[in-house]
Amino acid sequence: MRARLRLIRHGESVQSRHGGTDPGLSVLGARQALELPELDRLYGELAKLEALASRDNDAEVLAARQAQAHTVATLKPWKLLLK
User: Fold this and answer.
1) φ/ψ of residue 55, rounded to 5
2) Domain span including residue 48
3) What is the mean pLDDT of residues 49-62?
């Protein structure tokens, strides 16, 4: 089974665990609620990772995914989210 990473687009509602949507969980809401540096850069790097995740598996794509995941993991806002 392949894991799927899905980014929330600006202003998009998030599907809740109970089946409804929660408009309070939009990216705009997250940007206002979270005081994280370089949030736009983190979003951009996650978008690149999502694009790689949707591609077929081959050695080149897997290497690119690994490099992109490392880039995301080393970003300051990602580290702050993990705290």
Assistant:
1) -85, 160
2) 14-82
3) 95
